[in-house]
Amino acid sequence: MSSTGVQETVEVQGVSRRDFLKFCSLALGALALPHAYASAMEQTLGASKDTAFVPQPYFQWQNEFLCKTIYPLREERLRDFLVYYMEVDVWSQYKDKDVNTLTNDVDEYKKAWELNAVAALKEYTLLRDYFLRKDVRENYSNFQPIDETELGEINRLHAIFAESWPRDIRGERSFVEGIIPNWVLHRRGIREWIKSRQRRHDNMDPNHVKYAVEGKELEFKKAVTLPMADQEMGKLLAFLATYDKIEERKLAWYKLSKSDPGFKTPEAEFLAKYPPGRQVTIRDLAYWKVEEYTRSVATQNQYELLDKINQRFQKEPNRFPQWLQYMVVHFSGMRYASAHGSWADPKDLIIRLGALDVERKLESLDDAEIEKRCKEKVAVYESADGTNKPKLAFATEQEWQDKLQLHLTNVKASGPKTRRAGLIALETDEVNYEIKSLSTEEALQKLIEMKSVFPKWAWKEIVKFTPLRVSEVSSLDWEKLTPQEEEERNAQQSNDIRTVMDAWEYYDPSAWRDEHGRTLELIVTRAVCNETAEHCQHIRGQLPPGGLAPKAKWYVTNEAESKLPGSYYVKPTSEKDYTQGASILWLRFVNSSIMNPSEWQIARWIETKQKVGLLPPEFKMKKAKNGEWAYKFGEVITRSRTTITPENQKVVENQWLRWIHEATVAEVAETADGMMVITFETSLPDNDKATSSVGTFKTPLDWHLSDGTEDQYNRSFVGFVPEGQAPGEHLKKMLDWNRIFKKQAM
Prior knowledge:
By secondary structure, the protein is of the alpha+beta class. Helix content is about 50%, strand content about 10%. Strands 3, 4, 5, 6, 7, 8, 9 and 10 form an 8-stranded antiparallel β-sheet that branches. The protein has a two-stranded antiparallel sheet with strand order 1-2. A hairpin with a 2-residue loop joins strand 7 and strand 8. The longest helix is centred in the N-terminal third of the chain and has 49 residues, at about 210-260. It starts with 10 loop residues before the first strand and ends in a 6-residue tail after the last helix. Mean pLDDT is about 90; it is low at about 1-15 and about 35-55.
């Protein structure tokens, strides 16, 4: 986001810099802040802004600190996009070819296979030897100090490996697979401890005797303990992955060495040679080409990856519509958490400051002075001369015209209370209309000019909730106040500004929806599945309702009313139902003991045009036997069953049906693994939320079309509306590749 210089005497949307300075100075008094700030602000506003262009971040993922916190999986998700589409393109290139005509490819494949086999054996051996070592302190010497307790847990894990390692390859993979869930639980326990203690510490008085001690312990867990557990998990997963590359050949060597007394080939030599009798297939070549490409982008940074992505976009613009380009560029790798409360309107803050000033200024006047000012105000509005009229006088919007007439009626009233209320309301809306007329950039610029007005803690919060974070954030702790800042925020002398800040920050946590739908600007710092899908639809020129629960009805209504020809809502039966830009909506039964029904999640009965409902007809008609599910259909669809454990204990399960997930279709295409649906979404519901993020995902078409088992019910529906008209100028700015590559914007 660049700062635009404007001379003091030039009006921007009807607000001159001189008038704005006056307004801010009045606001200072209203907020009981030191008036010494006014002179500093005046110097700021009077300073020349005609400086040479200096490249700076335009988008939040370009700021290194924001990228680390808002986009924890930035490069991984950009790579996913490239690799998934490469899989499609490679298979399209090879699938109809005769492998016998590809002699050169086959020879290269065999050479590459042998090189990869040697590398895979080396990686396997290193990791196996690592896990068979009972003390791995030296491998964690990068942590200073080491968490001795966590190192003990790691060494206990290694002791299990050393004492129980299978005698041969036949049991190795299953042994590692059995170990991993235990370490997942261990790591989850650390995360839950951190989460719980973080909440406790956030709510603790900074003056509490344990505040500093517990804060230090918490930071140690986050900076040392959890990363140690993560490092061990990474090695476990890497070790398991080696079996995909070598297990088949190790098993073949083992069987030959046991069954053929004349077989004397060393294992390492056997593993490194391409199997003489194995026929290279077209699928082999396709997998190899994709693996080579994946390695080529494995170490590239986000700008190198974006360059490759841009080349794809430029080459095939119809394949990659603007909504998909926008989401890939600006949302890939974003953290998984609700967007609510991550943005507040900067114009609203300025308006609140102005409204507070108006109210306090006028409340201090006696009735005679109010009557005098009311007459003056009426004269200004009714004057034929428009020179000194407020901008509100020229409003063309019906809503504002109605407000103005109501205010003027009250200003002309005979009763002093009505006149006073009318004048306060009129002057408040004059400020309101002036500020609302500003662009986002102009509003942010005015806040920058007011920076010295605010206490440090208040400015930090302003930066947190607005796009000012792009240029103002310079550390990883931008979202959290320090203990000293918390103390200053809660101090008695901060009551006035704290009241304004709280009202601004908590006014409407979901305000980002309307704002993004109107401007398409990148304003949120996190998103969950339906919020990601709503961003997609906004860029497609549509404004769907917020949340998961209303989506099905929205699509059904669009189909029934035919206002947007081509709209539909179906239970998919083939790849033809997955139109690009469509929403996929999944259902899931969840345990009542874990989660109570929520208005934003309840799946109320609704049917497609083809009369397909949320559940199969047999579920509604079945008479449950012992241990089977019994269904009830009402405002909330529920099911229950009673089972008897081996210990003869009765267990009753109660579940309710909810909408669980939403994704947006990017493409349906064939790969070497079969038909795939490529989507833009957050990680799937069953994935680890701690590592979930926004990005491009790929799943088999068959999985999408299946309802799953009755226990793991997984029915989905597809809703589609054609693209509408998105704000073109805003979209052009967001997809300006000069900005994306931090060059001078065009």
